[in-house]
Amino acid sequence: MRLLLFFLTAFAVFYGLPAFAELPALLPMEDFFKNPQSAAFSISPDGNLLAFARPWERRMNIYIKDLETGNERRITSATERDISGFFWKGNDKIVYVQDTGGDENFHVFVTDLKGSKHTDLTPFEKVRAGITDDLEDDPVHMLIEMNKNNPEVFDVYRCDINTGELVLVAENPGNIAGWGTDHDGKLRIAIQTDGVNTSFLYRTTEDEEFRNLITTNFKETFSPIMFAYDNKNIYVASNLSRDKVAIYTFDPEANKTLDLIFEHDEVDAGSILHSKKRKIITGVTYTTDKTYYKFFDKQREELQKTLEKFFPAYEVVPIDMDDDERKVIVRTYSDKTRGAYYIYDSNDNSISKLADLSPWLHEGQMAPMKAITYQARDGLTIHGYLTTPAGVEAKDLPLVVIPHGGPSSRNFWGFSSVTQFLANRGIAVLEVNFRGSVGYGKSFWQAGFKQWGRKMQDDLTDGVLWTVEQGIADRKRLAIFGASYGGYAALAGATFTPDLYACAVSYVGPSNIFTLLETIPPYWKPFLEMEYEEIGDPVKDKELLEEISPVFHAEKIKIPLFVAQGANDPRVNKAESDQIVEAVRKAGKEVVYMVKENEGHGFQNEENRFDFYRTLEEFFRKYLGSR
């Protein structure tokens, strides 16, 4: 057998084929994209019960587990759509949200722990609802926001979860983009926008009118994060007079920025860690190649060190605690595993596994993700991640570049089902934080303004060519595949660099910037002027938008194209995909077009994911020669 293996490997190398005997086993596509075994664990305030999500009838439903007895029971019975999110309301109720067919008009529901009574607290058609404050110290009420009276903006209501009664707390005058409460649940912050400028409004008590403290252009950040626990000063994220976002304390009564809490030379500050029990902030996060912590509190730092001793080879994240902060829900992960959930008990320094997310995927068969940098053609440093298949030399591989959505977003190091699926098929994957991505300071973000299809696209092209120059990618086997803005970038790659790629895949991606801006959800309209500055104004920048919209240049697309779309997508209307498919077919080219009638901005239902990635696999096998 060893001699046969030698000849097979030698044959593959001699004829320029991958040494397939060294690759991990070819895993079923479904293993990468099926629902997790269990996920989203949360502990009750008293520390006695767990809530978590688990598949039932192929949909993620909510279960309750008694930590003392180990007994479990399902309390929801969703069959059409996953439960999108949930949290504890006291020790005896669960609040959850769910939309219909991907329309993103989320309703807020409450149920008891037997699942015997489910109440839709926002039973209104074509209305989007969300939680302003769960009022965790109030067993009966929550603050809910809805766009029931005006689809473009959200009013705040006090909701009685027992009766469903809604009492208006704050009526939106038409220009409030967000609301904030103090630790007593009082509505004391409002963020106002005129479409370009953002104002931070504040009031000392709910009896007062809001007053404007500071106004900034949307290109700068001055955002409240949370009140200090005395409900006086506020922690804010700001990049005023600086490039990178830092965290400060701010005195709203004096309208004065006080102490610098955290800054980083290379990247924006991330989130704040805090202890409700001890009423202090305990640290902050920031992300360079990975996400790191800066601790201000010895106890929180010791907790992190203790957990990392249990799992030295993994990223370890405490995600929930009981009110006593003794029992901690812990999530582990890496680039090679979705990871697992554990419960840590500081009373006896014990840790117990709750569930692996995807136990059918084994780390030894996954590929490593490495942080990389390269220089764009204008000298700008671009960061990203490169994953090459395990078991073979990173040389002359088929490669797929995956632009992220947003585009005001970014890629992170960690496990990606898509990335690992492609790597298992023998494909290298490049994920780029092109200019316009967030997290690297405002100059880097603003460098992407009005650069759709231009310098933002050049950054992707330059990254792909960098992998070719490094000898990693095969120049003849390159592809581009993305969702949302990434779907646009895929279409732009096929249109504006037609000789670079062998094929392209657009997943819920826009093709016509004019119609994209015309059909955004109504609650995005207050930000439309910002979109004009970031992307382009349909009137003032008409020529630019015509130049960068792939639909107007479909005759340039000469490579195979795969387009996927949810019929109910409220962000990227189905017409975006219809237009490009029609235009490319009119130009005499073939397009694989997949539409799911019960989906929105991305395919959430498991069977639809399977259909999409099954087609994607065949598409790349055909045009990239992948495994």
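[next item in queue]
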Amino acid sequence: MADRKRLLIIGTAQQCHIKDFLEALDRSEVDAILLLPKRDQEAFNDEQAVFFSGIFHALFPPLLKAILFFRPHEVVVVCGMTYDHGNVVRAVSFYQNFYDLRINTCVRDKISPAESGLKPNPVKEICKWAALGSLALLIKATSLFKPLRVAEIYSPRLGHLALDCEIYLSEKELGRHEGFLDLFYFKDGQVANETLGKLFSRKMRINDKFRYLHEAVLFFNLSNKHELKLNTRTIALGRDFECLIQQTGNHVDFTPQEHERGKCEIKALGLDPQRPHVCLLGRDSAFLQQTMPGSDGDMQEPRNMDISTFKAGAEELLDLGYNVIRIGSIVQEPLKIEHPNFVDYACSGKQNDFMDIYLPATCKFFVGAQSGPMHVANIFRIPCLRINVVRLEVIEYCSPDDLAMFKLIRSESSGRILSIPEIIASGISKWPIENFADSNFTVIDNTENELLEAIKEMYLKVNGKNQPTDEEKRRQQHYLSHLKISNYNTRFETPISAFFLKKHANELFNSKDS
């Protein structure tokens, strides 16, 4: 009888994707062992699994032990859509130099051969390990005088780039990083926006060569003392959950020459640069479809909105005397408004790296979906109206100067809108956005009228004219009373649109909500 196939499964995806893979596996035909991060220990405690912490490389002890003693015929790396699994494939591929080993990746139940270009040359790899050893000794020697730490900035996405750096600078201002020599590099040498990267480079020691120091730290298990994990890696979310930005001042700014450039480019858009401007940001599927084809863009659909619902609110702002600028880089369709003080910058043909930052950094206030450009406004302490938020607990509640409005959630089985207590009790308020794709729930976008009324509220708020009634205050307090401190939020100071809460009071605060 032929030997059963020996399968090594390495999980890097969300737990649900790993479970789907395991359920589809015919255990009668294979012997399988799993290597899973320790974070998944409770979810897979009944499986034959080894739980690890640390970064994969060819001599990573759990992997080395599996290769030497289990001798798998095949390795499957169950990947997330955006997880950095290249290091896992590269580590396993090293052993293809010594025996016949198939390596596949599984993304959303689709299995395909691992990228062959990740297979390392054994001689070069061994030389690299020797070089990393020398760097590890250098780190140790330098740290005798001043403790050295290295950090990767998750820079390919604009929001993460903005928050990783700004939260670190806020922590530093608050005294958290005193006495350390901190060195940084941009992940994979990619920067979502060169202008923003340049601004932060003025305040932080950022150099691509520092990634080799980080490799040495990870390879020789020096992370406890010499790796600095920034916000994105610490909480696995792009958010200021401690509200540190509100506790500190601005850390980056433009030079006088850069401000002059910004004013000139606003004028080139056909607008008066002396007139205050408001930025509008919608979200659609075009950006991810074009920049990350084959990604999970289809599963992000609940975050999108119809840009035309901005029309009434934009016209209100124009009547109030603002320049109104629809921002973005790759969009599905223009916002059709005819007015001398309006410009659809995203469709103007004049969009560029510098103005993508300058416009949200200098606006009077920002209106839009929670996305990268809004985080740029955050780090410049610009008040934000956050609209069409899918999950209640993912709203950033740090600033009392902000305003928010979320999407209603309808249960298709019952045909009714879920109340706030139901949304929170069910966990939907902080679901991964992918969970909505195959769920029984539909999200309902904010209407054009709701956006108009929220923009009116925001205008009054920013200009110190907002005077909430006692009933509005009571309703806000009632809403916020349902939210609890968690790894998403430590403060709840951002109010929800008063018009929105009143309009949907019967649905959101139903009779079950005592």
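[queue empty]
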